[in-house]
Design brief:
- The chain is an alpha/beta fold and about 180 residues long.
- It has helices at about 10-30, 45-55, 105-115; strands spanning about 5-10, 35-40, 60-65, 80-85, 95-100, 120-130, 140-145, 150-155, 170.
- A 6-stranded mixed beta sheet has the order 4-3-2-5-6-7, sandwiched between helices.
- Helix 3 links the parallel strand 5 and strand 6 (about 120-130).
- Bound molecules: inosinic acid (IMP) and magnesium ion.
- The site of magnesium ion has 4 residues, from strand 5.
């Protein structure tokens, strides 16, 4: 698995240090009451687990699943809701937790969808911001790192469902994208 990585962008330490700082900002921004951490599956899994542990306060954890890539490396722009959230977010502070914001189409779909359920507040926390790739503006309140416009894997991010369990964020070797034998 590690052999397929060309370059590591953020090590486990880089990520944990940044998450501690993000958690401090989030604690300050939401002084009291429950905060709903709404993870976007499956990419946000590792980030949400670490962020939740870094937040020294009550949180409610829930997940929503959408599909926008259909297995490739390019956003299709077509977003499908695969799993809805389980808690009622009406009147609650909701923080949408994403691994990466790329074109912005997925998160904008989610913001639109969740707004109709009348949360008290709705904000976005993204570990990675691929700002150059944006097709629609996204209000990201808490950002981990701004990243180059390259396809990244690890720490939740996948290529064809693999590499999510890498403890770091890296760039795949080009040969991984080429079909065997070519
Ligand atoms: P967007 O709708 O284009 O912003 O894409 C958002 C989703 O696409 C993210 O939640 C990721 O799951 C996935 N994604 C975007 N860029 C990458 C990448 O570089 N590697 C792996 N997944 C990505
Ligand atoms: Mg995702």
């Amino acid at each position: 698995m590690h052999d397929d990585i060309d370059r590591i962008l953020y090590t486990d330490d880089d990520i944990q240090n940044r998450i501690r700082a993000l958690a401090r900002d989030i604690n300050e921004a939401y002084p009291s009451g429950d905060l709903v951490l709404l993870g976007v599956l499956s990419g946000s899994l590792l980030f949400l687990a670490d962020l939740a542990r870094a937040l020294d306060r009550h949180v409610i954890v829930d997940f929503i699943a959408v599909s926008s890539y259909e297995g490739g490396t390019q956003s299709t722009g077509v977003v499908r809701l695969l799993k809805d959230l389980s808690v009622n977010i009406e009147g609650k502070d909701v923080l949408l937790v994403e691994d990466i914001i790329d074109t912005g189409l997925t998160i904008n779909y989610l913001i639109e969808n969740l707004t109709t359920r009348h949360p008290r507040s709705l904000a976005v926390c993204a570990l990675l911001d691929k700002a150059e790739a944006r097709k629609a503006p996204v209000p990201i309140r808490f950002t981990g790192f701004t990243v180059p416009n390259e396809f990244l894997v690890g720490y939740g991010l996948d290529y064809q469902q693999r590499y999510r369990n890498l403890p770091y964020v890296g760039i795949l070797k080009p040969r991984v994208f080429q079909p065997a034998g070519s």
